[in-house]
Amino acid sequence: MQGNTQCSIFIGNIPYTANEDQLQEVFETVGPVVSLRILRDENTGQAKGIGFCEYRDEASAERAIRILNNYEMNGRCAVRVSPCVAPRQLTCTLLWQA
Q1: Model-wide pTM > 0.85
Q2: 64-72: long-range pairs with CB below 8 Å, 24+
């Protein structure tokens, strides 16, 4: 997900039986969802139990974190919701040059 990280949240502990439509239904209860994705294993297609949700605005993302963290879904332990952190910018230093 490459959207605005201030409007995006990380979702952890997603039940393996859940799909994107079910999650979107839950996460739309706090605001308009722009995109939602469950990460899957490249080889097997099996859900990894984590995903990302992008909201139209920061207020919705903040509400989701506040209201949906520890939400029980499909009989699995509570879903964890937290802010999405932008990847750190990597810098390289040239140590040796031929």
Answers
A1: no
A2: 64/9, 64/27, 64/30, 64/31, 65/9, 67/29, 67/30, 68/26, 68/27, 68/29, 68/30, 71/26
Interval 47-63: pLDDT, tens: 999 999 999 999 999 99
Q: What angle do CA 11, 79, 36 make, to 5 degrees?
A: 35
State the chain's maximal CA–CA distance in angstroms: 60
CA dihedral 29, 84, 39, 18 (to 10 degrees): -30
- Residue that the structure tokens 């802010």 belong to: 83
